[in-house]
Amino acid sequence: MIRTAGISENEQPAESSGRAESQGAPSGSPPAPSSTRMPAQPSARSKGKPRVLRDFVSILWLTAAIVAALNSSLMRWDWVLVHMVLLGALSHAVLVWSEYFTGKLTHRAPTDASNRAQDARAILLLVGGALVVWGFPAAHWALVVVGACLVATAVVWHAAHIATRFRGGAGGRFRVVARYYLAAACCLPLGATYGVLLAAEPGDTWRGRLMAAHIAINLFGWIGLTVVGTLLFLWPTVVRSRMAPGAERRTAHALWFLLVGVVAIATGATLGTHWLAFAGTLTYAAGIGVWAVTLGYPLRRKGMRDFAPASIFAGVCWAGIILVWLAVFMALGGWDTVSDHLYQIGFVALWGFALQLLFGALSYLMASAMGGAPSVRRAMDTVFNWGATFRIAVPNLALLAWLAPTPFPGWFAVLGIATLASFVPLMFIGAFAGVHAKQQLRATGSHAGTSTTNLTAAGTSATGPRTNPTGPHTANPNATGSTGGVADGAPGTAPTPPHGIVKGEQ
């Protein structure tokens, strides 16, 4: 049973030791050594202030998707719904959070110039996605081409930015994350090309082949690789446990299996070679198996007691089901009939994988962005954990019932969709609860118990917070990754860095 209350005091993220020791220092203590500080000063306008193009675009796409789900009279509404979430909300989140995590891993804070560039990329992705979502159902091929070009431009620009940040050995033991982000970014322009070819309405055989390649490159490549790379360090944090020993090495090895798998599926589908596409799915599955061991270690230690890890875990499980499903189609189906099944896969990817993964991540990251005070996190966690067991069980049972070869009651589908979509209003309620808790702290002048964590601190423990004998815990603004108050440069719902890294696992 997933608990439905906030976390207790002794379950707060622990302080970092080693390089991050100064984060828990009282106000007025000496700054951290220059080697551990971000070389650039954080942008003044990004600290504690929301930015529309960074913080609210995903919410806009999710709201539009809810409206589309309620209006089945829209042309190709199922296709529109899938692309509003995957191309719109989730792709925007990938751009924003991968850049944020890169800054933390490389000790480089956002500047005004980098914020302007990020906003420009967000505009390109937003406009491009809107043109694709509008142009394909309306059979305006030119709009689809322009939109795909804008989307590809934004992602290529993003990849160049990530590569620049990790240049010169920055990132240390987490450089594998950069390789995942760059590999994922290379996938999307190719996947967009297949999407443009699909918009030209080819025949049934070619449509099945192009759609299989399109799904493999965009879902398993662009989204899948980003998720695997990010969960290396985010999953132990959400579970509030230690990172698995050798997790970075396993994740690095898995990348080659995943890349070969994506290339083989896309190539086999393009050439119409079933055995090659099938071998690609098996190779990708092998890579997921190598990496999945890193998820099991924190889970065995702590289990799942909150909505966030349970929702993320459910999304990962559905990704595995999609992979097996696609492998069966590659082995048994003909290219002229596979497209009908792939539409089902797209809907499962939306409902089972993308939304549950996104909502689970947001429920943790939003609480972290409000600051380190335990009372703020408790207030937000309490909201996000309302009816957690029900909100996890009902959408997944409804999706299983929809896939089962038995009559599916329409009311159950409505209940499942409504339960899943309930996170959107809860997101706003949780944000207001966090703001109210922070206002109460300011009114009482109490910041005792505030704890901060550091994404790149190699000495982080998961055994509980330390006490500071010299005074209350306050964030040192000079320390790397300090998150006192609203996270510096955080993407709206940005995370406090994880505490799942322990000294003995360097």
Describe this structure in words.
- This protein has helices at 52-55, 57-69, 77-105, 112-135, 141-165, 175-199, 204-239, 247-271, 274-302, 307-332, 335-369, 374-384, 388-403, 410-421, 423-444.
- Helix 9 (274-302) packs antiparallel against helix 10 (307-332).
- By secondary structure, it is mostly helical.
- It has 15 helices and no strands.
Number of strand segments: 0
CATH class: Mainly Alpha
What structural class results from the helix and strand content? Answer: mainly alpha
The name of the CATH superfamily reads Cytochrome c oxidase-like, subunit I domain
Largest sheet features = none
Alpha carbon gap, first and last residue: 34 Å
Percentage of residues in strands: under 5%
By oligomeric state, this entry counts as single chain
Shape: globular
Instruction: Outline the low-pLDDT stretches.
Output: 3-40, 44-48, 447-506
Mean pLDDT figure: 77
- The ordered H/E elements are HHHHHHHHHHHHHHH
Find the CATH topology: Cytochrome C Oxidase, Chain A
What count of helical segments does DSSP give? 15
Rg, Cα atoms, Å: 22 Å
CATH level-two architecture: Up-down Bundle
